[in-house]
């Protein structure tokens, strides 16, 4: 039964490698600039306040928990773990590749790497979230939750990354102002959240956007239209997420 998860040791190595590369990017830093310093070079209005990026600490903590949990021999029999396959390893490779592309300022390349990371996480998400209708507590918090949060943040990061690449390329936005495009992106992100929340009944994914949108509203206070749109969107998403969470709690009680 253990052979159902042949990647378990590779997954542990992948988590260690990802954390090491990200730590190196901050502590060295790679190419002489931190990730935040590079972000400040591209003042796109969709970028959240710096504190928002602390969510990576939570993501990496959850991934450590996932790596340990999935390596247990008995975990190989669990439907969520058996669905991981090589996808987590691939996502980790793309995560590290993005760090190098970003720090060495290959911004366009970083977009394609980010999209590849996004695709692998979508595959992981759909596999682990739909693997079973009755996950164990361990599966719920150490397999499903990490990828709910991870995918949510990478969705936000992808939007920011594409915006940065367009900014660097000098795109004129088809004549629309940067404020207008930022509002369009915020609305697009909100619609995406509602679609995902409805399809997968996932308040955790939605709360990541609440976190990001509040940080955008905070950072972009000089642009009232952007800040107000981000804040209103965050409130609407939060209300919907709470509603989904309450329905799930009621459903569990009825079982």
Automatic annotation (TrEMBL):
Keywords: Membrane, Transmembrane, Transmembrane helix
Annotated transmembrane regions: 12-30, 50-69, 81-100, 106-126, 147-167, 179-197, 204-220, 226-246
Domain of life: Bacteria
Claim: Transmembrane helix is one of the keywords in the record: yes
Record protein name field: Tryptophan-rich sensory protein
Species whose genome carries this gene: Paenibacillus phyllosphaerae
Taxonomic classification: Bacteria, Bacillati, Bacillota, Bacilli, Bacillales
